[in-house]
Amino acid sequence: MDNFTVGTTDGILIRCNTSGRHSFIFTLIPVVYGCNFVIGIVGNSMVVAVIYCYLKLKTVANIFVLNLAVSDLTFLITLPMWATFTATGYHWPFGSFLCKASAGLVIFNLYTSVFFLTSLSIDRYLAIVHPVRSRQRRTVVYARITCVLIWAFAFLLSLPTALTRDVFQIQPTNNTVCAILDRKELNHTLVAIGLMKSVLGFLGSRSRADEVLWMLAAVVLAFFLCWVPHQVFYFMDVLALLKVIENCRTLDVIDTAMPFTICIAYFNSCMNPILYGFVGRNFRRSLRCGCCDAARPARPAAPTRASAPR
Description:
InterPro entries: ATII_AT1_rcpt, ATII_rcpt, CCR1-9-like, GPCR_Rhodpsn, GPCR_Rhodpsn_7TM. GO terms for molecular function: angiotensin type I receptor activity; angiotensin type II receptor activity; C-C chemokine binding; C-C chemokine receptor activity. The chain crosses the membrane at residues 31-55, 62-83, 103-120, 141-159, 186-205, 212-236, 256-279. Belongs to the G-protein coupled receptor 1 family. There is one protein chain. The chain has 9 helices and 3 strands. It is mainly alpha-helical and 310 residues long. It has a single domain (12-283), classed as Up-down Bundle (Rhopdopsin 7-helix transmembrane proteins), CATH 1.20.1070.10. The chain has a 3-stranded mixed beta sheet.
């Protein structure tokens, strides 16, 4: 999601109008978006199918992981639009509504990912440190209520992003861009701090053999590593908005690096299914069962007494 900031609704004049507009970006980034889309859709769809059909929604961890996969799927459907946006030289042809919805879904996915990972961390902490006392609260009903609250809260937090996005004309290129008016509400530094607290919260647990804990550690570490580069350049972009950085060469470095850090951040939605396969033994076993069931030819039904020839 490439960011442009404008101040009026008519033709917008950009002072450093060549900043970040290199031909290799318009070729490479859409290809990466396309790969992320295919891998993410296939992987997360498999996660949903395996959990729903084989692992079932009988544990708190499975409910949170399923919702995390659904959250990634809702975000991944926007990637073809962002790929088109970049491939056409930052031209948005999809109108105002999809501009708002796509930008909102990106932030929505970020918040839901953080909240579901935090919930998984708390669940593991309670299961390991307070296994007896937490048994009454670590139930499927409580997990489902938590998921509903997370979806609702993340939706409310992503609304400012969707509402402040719109389509604008950029001069002198005459491009129609999906731009944002005010990005004060998009400071995700606190989100990164909250994620670090979540990581510290479960790394201090006492169990070394908890499979869900190891899977969670891998997923959260991947989330952190994927989003950190984007947060660093996003912070530099905020400094540019505040006029702390005004040099066009520095702005060009920021605007050139930003699409690549976004690609790394978006790749996180593809990594979770891969990590489940490497770390989760139950997930691998269920996935093999699903593949075997799909490959096994259907057996003809045994003839009943009524249908048997006489």
